[in-house]
Amino acid sequence: RKEVEQDPGPFNVPEGATVAFNCTYSNSASQSFFWYRQDCRKEPKLLMSVYSSGNEDGRFTAQLNRASQYISLLIRDSKLSDSATYLCVVTANSGYALNFGKGTSLLVTP
Amino acid sequence: EPEVTQTPSHQVTQMGQEVILRCVPISNHLYFYWYRQILGQKVEFLVSFYNNEISEKSEIFDDQFSVERPDGSNFTLKIRSTKLEDSAMYFCATMGQGKKLFFGSGTQLSVL
After folding, report:
1. Bridge partners, B34 (sequence order)
2. Is A39 on the interface with B (CB under 8 A)?
3. How far is CA A38 from CA A30, B91, B101, in A?
4. Higher-confidence position of A94 and B44
5. Residue A1 has pLDDT above 70, yes or no
6. B106 and A46: CB-CB below 8 Å?
7. Per-residue pLDDT for A2 more than 80?
């Protein structure tokens, strides 16, 4: 089983739509969870941390379900500039190495 | 805003040659990393470095790879004898508060 699994997409949505991405992870000992964003051939950039209670940052909402080892990201009111690959990231056993999912591709169209 | 800087942005080399990729980490960060991303694939962990020594490494990080911090500012990744399959984007990263990783813009390595 892959350590971090994501639906690769692509997700094609119109501007203004709401879109949700899911991620599952295999290491039940993982303690830290993140969503990163990666534009084509650029470095990953932190979008947001994911907390057990769920957290929101503007149009973005992240949820964590430790029992199911499942993380989600919801984007409301999609903008053209949201088009990117969204990477689910989870700490490995040591707690200081981060494992990346392969990413989910989002294309927001006019 | 402090950032991780990497040089060169592109490196072309012949198979079997040695390459050194350079990174200047964010100054007050303590954990440093190298990741790589083969085109179309996921970002893969190579090695982490803390207190001037390797703290963790992946299966990818074999004897052909080494890291060091030669002068207290630069953080380097050396590949001793490059192979075709080493062609990838190599990212340096540092870890800030809350285990958040900050990445450099990467070095695209092409092995011919």
Report:
1. B47, B92
2. no
3. 22, 13, 13
4. B44
5. no
6. no
7. no
Amino acid letter for position B59? E
B66: which strand partners?
Answer: B78
Contacts of B105 in chain A (CB under 8 A): 42-43
- Do A46 and B100 lie within an 8 Å CB cutoff? yes
Q: Smallest Cβ distance to B101: which of A92, A94, A98?
A: A98
The pairing of strands B10-13 and B107-111 is parallel
Q: Chain B residue with minimal CA distance to A38?
A: B43
B99 contacts A32? CB cut-off 8 A: yes
Residue by residue, pLDDT tens for chain B (112 residues) are: 779 999 999 999 999 999 999 999 998 898 999 999 999 999 999 999 998 899 999 999 999 999 999 887 899 999 999 999 999 999 999 998 888 899 999 999 999 9
Cβ atoms A71, A3 nearer than 8 A: no
Res A91: pLDDT: 87
Are B91 and A100 in contact (CB < 8 Å)?
no
**DSSP code at position A49:** E
**Cβ contact B94:B100 at 8 Å:** no
Closest-CA residue of A relative to B92 is A43
